[in-house]
Amino acid sequence: MTKLVAIVNVIAWSGFWAFGYLAISAEGLTSGQLVIAAVLAFAGLVTGILAYMRLVRASEESGYAKRSNQLDAATRERAQSEGSGT
């Protein structure tokens, strides 16, 4: 499943860059064509970000990547109460 998400990630980012470039630099396109290129670029951006975040989560769960240094809720609340001085 991770390989499929990686393939989707590559295709999505490729679509983002290709259609984004068309939307920005193309001359002689109608406004409808520009809107379609911009929508496809946005779809590639959103899909690419979601696929990338899913790959990051999968790599952290598998142990391939180090987990992020996020605190759990209880530790964060304790640190905030100690740091506020009240």
TrEMBL record:
Keyword terms of this UniProt record: Membrane, Transmembrane, Transmembrane helix
Annotated spans, Disordered: 61-86
Parts of the chain that traverse the membrane: 7-26, 32-52
Superkingdom field: Bacteria
Protein name in UniProt: Uncharacterized protein
